[in-house]
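Here is one chain, start to finish.
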Amino acid sequence: MRPRTTGFDEEKFFMSTDNSAKRATSRRGFLKTGGGVAAAVVGGAALPLVQASPAGAAVPDSPRFRLDGAGGNPIWKKSLHANWVMQSFGYDSVHQHVYFLQTKTDSTNGDLWVTKTDTAGNQLGSMALHGFGHGVSIAVEPYGGQVYLWTEWKTSASGFGTRIGRFPFVNGAVLEQDDPSVQDRTPSIGDTMINPQPVIDPSTDRLLVRYGDGTSQRRIVAFALSDARAGRLTSGYRLVERALPDRKDWGVANPFQGFTAYGRYAYLLEGPRGNPSYLTTVDLNDVGNSTVVDRFATTAGQSLPGREPEGMAIWQSPSGPRLAFGLYSNTSGTRQASVFYKSEFV
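Its structure:
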């Protein structure tokens, strides 16, 4: 997310919207500390995680990406379809393509561009979305001979989407928010759901949605992709739900910029324009108060002018899974996208 492009403060927006949703946190409560991963301490306080699903964690075990490990930089200072700001990206790992979302600087009408590229960032197509949102995240789903995109949808006055829409990518198309090809795929789990943001974990075929509930915390909920595709997104179908670390002062200093998931772990991208940016790992299976099992300050792309972190995604590359994160830059008025990745596991 890019507060400086819209003048919008995500923290204040979530805090001011229907604070009755705080009941969601209080009624779940905090479980006693358990598990073997120590809680990270930021500013002298442990970051809590609550377990919402009464059935317990349902995410299979998996390796965890090593945030300080080796990686690469397959996309470097690539211009996208419009000279707009890159916000997020996702991989079609079946066809080895990337889909970027871009928003116009200072825009609040929710108009976005989708730019399709190869894995080196060379343009292959584009699509316009009118009134969809800010482009905080994108999920890419190759299915049935088409590629479907999941994004925030139906923008509010803030410029952020209020729903999640699923629709096929059509090169050259202009999609209005009331187009009948857009399928509403917003979870309905009994909570207030503010600014829902979708990603797909290709390793487990799960849809994960990050959302606000009117407090300073954010939550994340997961569904089987087959259920989500069919619109089965009620509480009875959720596989796991967690509170993400309460961002508070950390969030003021380090704006949220993207997330993704690979198996048992979710990954967050945070940080302002400039250096450093932070990669954070959250254990989705932890039943205690341990949330952050790793946090790493990365200076990747530190030479980029106007550097700002934007977006995360899992890339199932021919060489193996990769945790990818994006960086926006501005070279003399030309807006560009770069992508780095981590490829080693702990």
